[in-house]
Amino acid sequence: MTRATDPASLTPGEARALFRSGLVTPTAGWCRGHAQANLVCVPRELAFDMLLFAQRNPKPCPVLDVLEPGATSGLILDGDVRTDLPLYRVWRDGELEAEVPDVREHWRDDLVSFLVGCSFTFEHPLVAAGIEVRHIVDGSNVPMYLTERPCRPAGDLTGPMVVSMRPIPADRVADAVRISGRYPGVHGAPVHVGDPAALGIGDLGRPDFGDPVRIEPGEIPVFWACGVTPQAMVMASRPSLAITHAPGHMLITDARDSDYLAP
Amino acid sequence: MTRATDPASLTPGEARALFRSGLVTPTAGWCRGHAQANLVCVPRELAFDMLLFAQRNPKPCPVLDVLEPGATSGLILDGDVRTDLPLYRVWRDGELEAEVPDVREHWRDDLVSFLVGCSFTFEHPLVAAGIEVRHIVDGSNVPMYLTERPCRPAGDLTGPMVVSMRPIPADRVADAVRISGRYPGVHGAPVHVGDPAALGIGDLGRPDFGDPVRIEPGEIPVFWACGVTPQAMVMASRPSLAITHAPGHMLITDARDSDYLAP
């Protein structure tokens, strides 16, 4: 990618080719108009519990698609789920074993890939409405936090909800709620506005994932359910193997934002 | 139930007690304000494919809840899924084995129960808007039809979409679309308006499930995706065992219609 290329104007195929050839970067702001996705791959014997966990926790885990066992592409991914994300995490027994740009050496034919909606999808509509998305402007990763709010369990799978945070001017909070609420398939409206302590978040300056961001005077921290929640579930539930994206380093799908607009 | 009791005014618990004690009737119009559900129970080894089939076909198969393997009650059902519906169907290898008001003798501890949204849920809002629901007025079961539109398969599970039909005056079709569209969790907006042949339906007077209804001059047949679709899947895919509701004879849940309003 030349410096002159605006990541927002790339097609999903162009972006995935860059990541496949080694570029590592958070993907907020990339490929305007296209849906981004969280990735979590688990062995087939856990796939029902994982899908049920997602079904029971639709705010943090809105399922966009599930690939066939062993499959590496699908209806909204004309690519390879093992190479086309900028960065992955490989988990053994709930412990982070590796953070790598390619997971082909860890792949198994019994892995089932879940593509889970990502709030980056509605950031372009926020920007189009004149609402600044701080981590895009500052070129950093979105801040994400473990909360004290438990997910509804499924089988042996359990864990806390993870949230992403964007500081929003007080007079635009209602607009941010309305606009993101139009996209329930990619986390939808915020789960919490303005009170980090109520979620068990002690220090906004120390996110559990991603980077801290500036909060300007007059801005309110607004919290959206986050697709890193399955990673918190992996840490809590300790499956023998799981492969996920690295937080903020998403799968850019061929689906359009507008595919996930509420009716 | 005395004849003086209006089924619309019963609580879900009262209705389920009547069905548990042997009353057999279609449930359209019952328990105003409460969500009704289709039921499909499959063995645990098919549960992932069933949940994936539903996830891939959200218009006919919107999942309201999934019970734990062997469980007979859950978050939106303070009752017993084996006895609290008016009528069930038991399927072996895709063939209808029995139609019975109680399935306790067929129950197995590895069965997983899927509660799938039902369009009866948005009939009360249609009626409240002055749109007559013909099968309620006439005291018959809603007409349902197999279509030529295939569902997206999942594993070995496949089959055609089933639709329900309501005749709507031409000048109220748009209202019926808007009102039902507010409830995407219970089939939402129609999948087709006005052209049965395009769905492969030859004769509206001969539904595949339920009863035919009068279509008055100036009324247009409007088709909604239907939760009998999993039964068409059972017929096509022939799992060793499945238990479902009998078409139109639904599970009345403790959830409210308003729980499924779009954001």
Automatic annotation (TrEMBL), chains A, B:
Pfam families: D-Glu_cyclase. Keywords: Lyase. InterPro entries: D-Glu_cyclase, Putative_hydro-lyase, UPF0317. The keyword Lyase applies. The keyword Magnesium does not apply. Belongs to the D-glutamate cyclase family. This is Putative hydro-lyase GGG17_02585. It comes from Arsenicicoccus cauae. The lineage of its organism: Bacteria, Bacillati, Actinomycetota, Actinomycetes, Micrococcales.
